[in-house]
Amino acid sequence: MTGLRYETLKFYCNQALVPNVRRDPQNRRIFSDEDISWIRSLECLKNCGMGIKEMQEYLELCQEGPASIPRRKEILERKRRELEREQERIRESIAFIDRKQRYYDDVLSGKNPGTGSLRENRLANGPSGPKGGTL
Fold this sequence. Notes:
The protein is mainly alpha-helical. Helix content is about 65%, strand content about 5%. It has five helices and two strands. The protein is elongated, with a radius of gyration of 24 Å.
């Protein structure tokens, strides 16, 4: 139901990230709909770049109730800013690859003689290459 491996679920439970999980008579975990929803939220938090300690802190704040909402919002805003910086880095990397691909296409099509030197690469990337590099 969560799409996670057993080991991952067990790890989350052992790290106290899924509180109050019930067990059946054979000691197997029984996840409620609320548990499943929370586990999905944990995966989203993980994908946002949160580590275990941060997720534990976030869970503790959630358990405190509405009074902790401002602090939770701060945590999420900080993660959002980090993701935006990562997104910009990825955009720049894709733009670099696109410039290199156009340069190589021009070399392969004969539009650009291209000898494979760093100088030609610098010219294809601008005066000092991507963000000051010289590839």
